[in-house]
Amino acid sequence: MFSMCKQTHPATAVEFSIACRFFNNLEENLVVAGANVLKVYRIAPNVEAGQRQKLNPSEMRVAPKMRLECLATYTLYGNVMSLQCVSLAGAMRDALLISFKDAKLSVLQHDPDTYALKTLSLHYFEEEDIRGGWTGRYYVPVVRVDPDSRCAVMLVYGKRLVVLPFRKDNTLDEIELADVKPIKKAPTAMVTRTPIMASYLIALRDLDEKIDNVLDIQFLHGYYEPTLLILYEPVRTCPGRIKVRSDTCVLVAISLNIQQRVHPIIWTVNSLPFDCQQVYPIQKPIGGCLVMTVNAVIYLNQSVPPYGVSLNSSADNSTSFPLKPQDGVRISLDCANFAFIDVDKLVISLRTGDLYVLTLCVDSMRTVRNFHFHKAAASVLTSCICVCHSEYIFLGSRLGNSLLLHFTEEDQSTVITLDDVEQQSDQQLQRQQSEDQNLDEILDVDQLELAPTQAKSRRIEDEELEVYGSGAKASVLQLRKFVFEVCDSLINVAPINYMCAGERVEFEEDGTTLRPHAENLNDLKIELVAATGHSKNGALSVFVNCINPQIITSFELDGCLDVWTVFDDATKKTSRHDQHDFMLLSQRNSTLVLQTGQEINEIENTGFTVNQPTIFVGNLGQQRFIIQVTTRHVRLLQGTRLIQNVPIDVGSPVVQVSIADPYVCLRVLNGQVITLALRETRGTPRLAINKHTISSSPAVVAISAYKDLSGLFTVKADDINLTGSSNSGFGHSFGGYMKAEPHMKVEDEEDLLYGDAGNAFKMNSMADLAKQSKQKNSDWWRRLLVQAKPSYWLVVARQSGTLEIYSMPDMKLVYLVNDVGNGAMVLTDAMEFVPISLTTQENSKAGIVQACMPQHANSPLPLELTVQGLGLNGERPLLLVRTRVELLIYQVFRYPKGHLKIRFRKLEQLNLMDHQPSHIELDENDEQEELESYQMQPKYVQKLRPFANVGGLSGIMVCGVNPCFVFLTSRGELRIHRLLGNGDVRSFAAFNNVNIPNGFLYFDTTFELKISVLPSYLSYDSTWPIRKVPLRCTPRQLVYHRENRVYCLITQMEEPMTKFYRFNGEDKELSEESRGERFIYPIGSQFEMVLISPETWEIVPDASIRFEPWEHVTAFKIVKLSYEGTRSGLKEYLCIGTNFNYSEDITSRGNIHIYDIIEVVPEPGKPMTKFKLKEVFKKEQKGPVSAISDVLGFLVTGLGQKIYIWQLRDGDLIGVAFIDTNIYVHQIITVKSLIFIADVYKSISLLRFQEEYRTLSLASRDFNPLEVYGIEFMVDNSNLGFLVTDAERNLIVYMYQPEARESLGGQKLLRKADYHLGQVVNTMFRVQCHQKGQHQRHPFLYENKHFVVYGTLDGALGYCLPLPEKLYRRFLMLQNVLLSYQEHLCGLNPKEYRTIKAVKKQGINPSRCIIDGDLIWSYRLLANSERNEVAKKIGTRTEEILSDLLEIERLASVF
To answer: What's the whole-number average pLDDT of the chain?
Structure first.
């Protein structure tokens, strides 16, 4: 069985985040990684253009509200295991160090020439002798970087340290020179001076016999040589053995002498608590480190006695390390994350989501004498924390949306002397905690609850009084309160616990009644609903792949080819400035004019011409005037009054118009370009024709006028200086260095003499130090607020395939791209090295154009192009180029050379091929009458339609056979959403009206004008449009009940419990424990089943089942059981299997519940209460019910170590058959009479039920052990495969082939295919392939095949699709060519990544046989010439491959 696996929705979870200077040394960025995705964000002001003009950045005291803007995204062939950054000697930007399993390290850097990620060096340590016999993939390679950037270390296999030394040498900047000017031959001296020197290995057992089980490694601050702390546990223990062996952890410090490669141990601390987790170094002037254990915090320094506090009462019993109880704190640091926000303060995010600020109280001797905990807020459950720009904190999360918080200090800072008396009792503390307020922000999921702040002064021990005396000024401390506020959030749908397919709820056009059920597959619209998140971040996520607009109304308009909407004179309107007033529709040789108010009426006798076809209508002069262009005239109107009519008489019709207020550019059929400008002299508006023209040969085939607000389009080099005094706002943040900058600004002579450390000793107290650190550079956001002056540009494409950019109004050629239709990854200026003086004379310009002719003969010609500023306030310009077969989307980035200081990088490439029988388009014959060309023709209609506001978003609509919306919002990520699964949109216009707020109009294949809006409940700024329904608890299993159109969901609430069951000899008894105030009680779960209606996505009231305490739901399905009433058919029931989790001493028992959903008359005013649950059966079983399914009308349950088959009769279950199984069966699925079961350790088995003999027998099984997570059937016409996902993140396909010799006569299931996915899959379902559209190349290619949709714990979605063999062979050859054809990011090989991974070496070779869809799809992004070369190598044509890809895309876009 041949198949293909492709990920369609990337992972959204965040696991690592660091702040570094990614693009240049001027600006700090946030680099975020999760699974195999790496993203670079920048913190930018969230200020609209209107507000921005009123602000004066230099006078602002406080930064405006910030947002996260994504500047770059990279997908890697490997999961990121550790992420760090380092500033290499003389580099203009930081490098990233990323480690991958098992022991790979890549050093990467941003490349300003191509805006890509370039690999500086690769380090690989997976040889057998380094492995030391380990086969399992247990160890995570951890990377740490020395704070002074002298070296980095990586811990591999838990046994060895890799040391990567960096050259610290600022005197020679040759490396940069090599970047800056093209050097013909590099001198030898330069080659040897690479910034990264040769790495070497240290075996930990050579340092000390006992070093093993390393828990954490960190570099210390302020040592002359790099000094590494290693926290390890030489002899392990566990909580059950504390009485026998406790305090097992050891901390050692190693000094690394990189030149001599010697590494002595300089400091050791023994017998630390057994539950140590991490160690954190503290910066100078305090120094030392903090050791975090689950129940305590310990401060250690080389020369001072340790100081530790216990955070709860568990620490008192588990360790003999001297700890003081911390007053008023009862927390556990299990799964907590930490980040320093100051020298002496760190933020702690607990596993409950609470944020605490921990202050180290330091006395005048700079030793820590106290800790102060302050609960600041309650927020998301984090996986990593990172501080940015010294006052923003990023909380990355795998379980909820990641947040960006801004923290500020409260004004009244309390000054405490260390000998104040304890004033506050614990009652006050308890009262405070009950007063938490909720600030529910953003999606109601990202909430931040602030706790009231009050200073707790601390008790002081008598010994301290004796030593230091009770002088009033023993030591002065400033304790500051911090306030956190949410700035922005990144949407995250991980982890996908469970998912199912349900029908999309569609209303009839009046918007109240539901559509009836779809009868056949063609009309069935399904949506993907997933139970995502955990605990208070739990939610239901509804994914939609194609947008189906809500059609408000539609009316028939015969013969209309194009449509526009415009505004009336803005100065006359009193209210509703942003509503459209006129709609113009163009027919073949006439125009319709409609007025749009409360209703839409045709108007006559206006200044609009109606007896000619209109080519374009738009607004000019800040929406005061309207311009109407026909094939022969340009008309300027104010409202409906004609002001001016300019005839265009050049012997050829006008066919395309582009405006950039106040310029109007016209393209004439014979290849000329005419530009007009709106002038208002002495109060009379006039259109004046520009006397500067551009040459009309080779003929111009597409134009776009562009008004630039981003400051990126500039010809001045001094705009790009890096000092920050420039007036280009967004400008230099995109891209690299422009000039070499001085490396050191000396502000203080002492710094020059003694380096930075001199500063620390001049401080009088910590308070001064803190004050000084707060007045850091806040220029970064001021620079981002400066507004660029608008500039005007004309972009044209010519018959020869070149793209040219002219500055308006003087029409100077400033940029020339050869062969733009080829679709290269980076577009560069062909005139970069031509001095600008040459280009001024007209004759030499033609010479340059001749010299820069296209290199590739058969590149597709550009048919249409547009440059559009998207993002916030148009700061992210995109260039879209449409050729016959595809749409190329480029983003603009800064580049310091050439005349116009930009380059273009390809972001995406959309396939626009249609499956209609291709007709050859001949050039228009000369016999065609001239008159014909003056009429409106379908080919004149523009396919790229920019819009300013549809549903609150701006973007570009791509009309044609595969219509889609292109969005790029202030979040900075390109989003492409398809419209109407398989429709065809001919024309489009935005339309804002009283009745249709921010909607749009479009013509599909018929002549019906559809007036519609985007569904408002979806969030469009994500890879797929998504709706998140917050639940505030963990969602578990989810099923869709089709008959009643309702979702049934199991939820799990968690609450601390003080009671538990203990075994007293013959029975269990409930006993209550009281362990004091500082004890943290365990968490108990409460399960519930609720019904959720997809009409409103609200929980149906009074129709839920609350399970008993201790009862956990383990299985939930809708089963079809034979129905007693009629005896003929099957009826659907909800069946739930549960288990009572008491304790390990008490035998596990479970219940089987069977329910039926019945419809009742709803209560008045509550239409949702029409469902009730009726209990059919509930009974305790002999063991835990672990899995449920149905076969031939019987119920199948996994019960303990047996599988039972039951028959439902007279409200009771009667046993029919049973069979013994292995360890724990957790999933059962059935088809016909076959039962496919998954065991959590012992792989899969196939059972067969024979109804006439009432026997259940084992048909076949897999003999090798395998930790199975999910199972599903692969259906390929008449072949049945068994798809399995496992703990090592693989997908494996098994088949039952009794004829094969190695199957031992059918006893053994054969492994037919395997593939490493790299993410854990817990849930899958099948969908039948259905080929849409009228014209198909091979109509029956995918008949009776099913594709399997999977969801991962990192928030990714994808599918596995059986392929026809011919297609599989073609893709396999393509995959093999692409492996060696493309450069591999981070040096990761896709073939190695996709090879099955296993803990133990297995005796069989990888079967492969599953195509890597992500690799195949990267073929689309190659340039046209490269694609042709690859296709030629495998003996096929590019069009064949592209249409294969398009066909699969259409199959998979059913949601």
So the answer is: 83
Distance separating alpha carbons of residues 148 and 168, to the nearest angstrom: 9
CA angle 1170, 1172, 1178 (to 5 degrees): 170
SS3 205: helix
Q: What is the spatial distance between Cα 142 and Cα 155, in angstroms, rounded to a whole number?
A: 5
Q: Which of 1214, 1213, 1216 is nearest to 1205 (CA)?
A: 1216
What is d(CA 920, CA 333) in angstroms, rounded to the nearest whole number?
70
Rounded Cα distance between 543 and 305, Å, is 57
- How far is residue 291 from each of residues 294, 336, 479, 855, 1198, measured CA to CA in Å? 10, 13, 22, 63, 46
pLDDT in tens, 895-921: 888 888 899 999 999 888 765 544 444
Q: What is the pLDDT of residues 1296-1329, one digit of tens each?
A: 999 999 989 999 999 999 999 999 999 999 998 8
Residue 721, pLDDT above cutoff 50: no
Complete DSSP assignment for 1365-1400: HHHHHHHHHHHHHHHHHSPPGGG--HHHHHS---SS
The two three-digit tokens of residue 628, written as one number: 């109407």
Token couple for 200: 């070497």
3-state SS, 465-490, equals HHHHCCCCCCCEEEECCEEEEEEEEE
Q: Is the pTM of this model over 0.70?
A: yes
User: How many C-beta atoms surround the C-beta of residue 134 within 10 A?
Assistant: 14
CA distance 1225 to 1218: 14
DSSP 452: P
Could you tell me whether strands 3-9 and 1357-1362 are parallel, antiparallel, or unpaired per DSSP bridges?
antiparallel
The stretch 989-996 carries a mean pLDDT of 89
Question: What is residue 933's three-state secondary structure?
Answer: helix
DSSP bridge pairs for 1009: 555, 1003
972 touches 71 (CB < 8 A):
yes
Q: Are 96 and 84 in contact (CB under 8 A)?
A: yes
d(CA 1009, CA 995): 16
Give kind and range of the element (H or E) at residue 747.
none
Phi-psi region of 533 (alpha: psi -120 to 50; beta: other; left: phi over 0): left
Tokens at 1192, concatenated: 């031939």
CB 30 within 8 A of CB 1342: no
Q: What is the mean pLDDT of residues 1394-1406?
A: 87
Burial class (CB in 10 A: 0-12, 13-18, 19+), 1032: middle
Alpha-helical (H) ranges within 183-298 are 188-192, 204-207
DSSP letter assigned to residue 332: -
Residue 499 has pLDDT above 90, yes or no: yes
| 601-618 average pLDDT score | 89
Give the strand order in the sheet containing 104-111. 82-86, 95-100, 104-111, 116-124
Q: What is the pLDDT of residue 183?
A: 42
